[in-house]
Fold each of these.
Amino acid sequence: MTASFRANRWYEGIAECQQQNEGYVLVTVVGTAGSTPRDSGSKMVVTASHTIDTIGGGHLEFDAISRARAYLAKGETRTELHSYPLSSALGQCCGGAVKVLFDVCNLHQQQVAIFGAGHVAKALVPILAQLPVRIVWIDSREDLFPDALPANVQKIVEDAPESEVRHLDENSWLIILTHDHQLDYRITEQALKHPSLPFVGLIGSDTKAKRFKTKLTHRGFDEHALARLVTPIGNRDIPGKQPIEVAVSISAQIIARLHHDNRSATPSAVSDVSVSHAQTNKLNKTGGEQVVATTLDDSESSSSKKDTTRDIK
């Protein structure tokens, strides 16, 4: 399906390309001499089907668009510098010259779906957003999301977050960090019904992981399906219980997958670096009501407290 764009300026075009996982080329005039249609710093975005903004029009722009699309067709991230004399050979009579930089970007970005907007997710999203990924961030509680999000992060507010699983792109990676064990289970179960989702990462204790796998087995999921469930999620080499520590642990595992060849990587190859994180809870009083403020995520309770996973029916 061809992406549609509402952007008029190049920076808006980049944001839309990142949100839609659309490959693009950022075309920039980086040098000028003599008379030229636009000054240095002029930019435009070129996709396979659209152009956004302009570097001056005419044959110069037509050739730049054609060159940009040829780079896109090769499917490689690259940077190229090309010089254009604005002479009759190019069909321009300005008499000057320009140098144009072609940055080929955002090809086949990995989609990462993060379920839950609690403490760990809030620490995790800013880290992952710096990677070449496209993030879908899902929770039922709109007030938990930050006011401003990176361009490659899409917020989805949904009363039944598990219903979003069926809308994810094929080969999406899931990170499940919700405030509710039963919701964690529903999301996990829905994800494992889709063989096209190769990585279903779930936060929690070893006890929670064992109980989930037992219940999933009773529900008919075989070893092949369960191999895609990575729980507890995270990298064992990174210790700590604070949200930022857990977020770094998860990020390390995601980075390892990004550097893996997805065609040869298997979920089990990554699951052996998963880590168990215990959680401690703090009870605060706010307006006369008890509020649970977690130091890990909203779903895990302290090892000294009841593991609510057993309540899943």
Amino acid sequence: MPTEQTGNDTRRAEILACGLKVLIAKDWRGTSMIAVAREASASKETLYNWFGDKAGFFGAMIRENASALDRALPEDFGAMPLEDGLRAFGAELLRLMTGEASVALNRAAIAEAGSDPVLGRILVSEGKAKSLPKFAGWLARHMALDDPMGAAEKFVVLVKGEAQLERLLGVTEPLPEAEITARVDRAVRDFLKLYA
């Protein structure tokens, strides 16, 4: 039988998904807690109790989006051989970074950066700062590296190339699977040339 906490977690995820839908449709300035509450058929009080203010809600959306990477990786990711793991991680990372959710969250942070960089700080602290060390730790278990974090950062740069920037600028659509595979294969090949 589901517990009350499980029900709350499910409802919280539904509200975050509704918030993301509003953010994609209306951008950051057009997104209000009232609009999210309306979209989610929730009370404003629930939103404020669970997330605090609008910035707290933004942080929760980023955490939810960043955790999608962990959820998407195969269960045996930790035990995968190096090349297989790099391909699995790279493909999920590229899907995440060029997907609608990440694009909307990054655009919101960029739009506010000039007047108030708080969203950018949240994006870095709740996204990259939490996911990159996990990947660096995985790399360190598979390779002899002097700087696992530096290697992890290089792999991410090789994977995303210009794809994320092009999506943020609105000049490309989400990448087809064949292109994701090709980009990740190139990134793995180039990474192993650097570090093997």
Amino acid sequence: MSDTPHSRSRSHGPSHGHDHVDEFDRGLSYDLPVLARRRMIRLLAGASMVPLVAACSSDESGGTSSASSSSPSGSSASAADCETIPTETAGPYPGDGSNGPDVLRESGVVRRDITRSIGPANGVAEGVPLTVTLTVVAADSGCGTPKKGAAVYLWHCDREGRYSLYSDGVTDENYLRGVQETDAKGQVTFTSVFPGCYTGRWPHIHFEVYDSLDDATAAQDIVVTSQLAFPKDVCDTVYATDGYRQSVTHLSELSLETDGIFSDGYDQQLATMKGSVEKGYTANLTVPV
């Protein structure tokens, strides 16, 4: 069986050394209701626009003002455009205690720089520098209210496509995993490296949002679990550098439209990117919850 996200039998990532992956990764039967719900939201949103379109079409004498008068106010329109970030699987390598290792209870896990392991481990992840900023906002405010004091646990694979704590060769490492509390702007920023692309998955970052830092470090009461996607042009540029050669092959077999997670829509999860290989990249994403 090919190693695709929805084959799910130890297949949500590269080859790893734990035997209890099947227990955690609940498979296509779990993912389908999530995907169906997201499609229904989009259908309902589209249906809600029908009266407005009809009003515009029937107004033959400069229907702009007519459409404007029947449209929602600015604040309501913003709220309509602000959907909660799609919920995605955490995959089989979360490191949050739900499938084996629990890095969230480790001293030092609350940190900005996640390139180094903490505790007795001393590994350092190598690759093109990447700074990730997530802005957590209240969806019911039309994305206008930052969620100060929330917490984000973020993790991803390394340049070789391996997940610390799980993958062969890095089971004793815990790099590329960290927690931060959101500031007054609702933001958290992590210093990392650009992840590799492994068989069956588009390049991505996992994250969990919690109501508080206490909840995060206790690994309890997750508000939402989702994923961030990277634009193809940036991936192509990064993967042309030393150390990412295997990612070139894996990326050529994928697209955002065929990825098992992002294929049903990725607009809310596609990071805004700036930077260069020489200076490093920044990735920004707004996370409505």
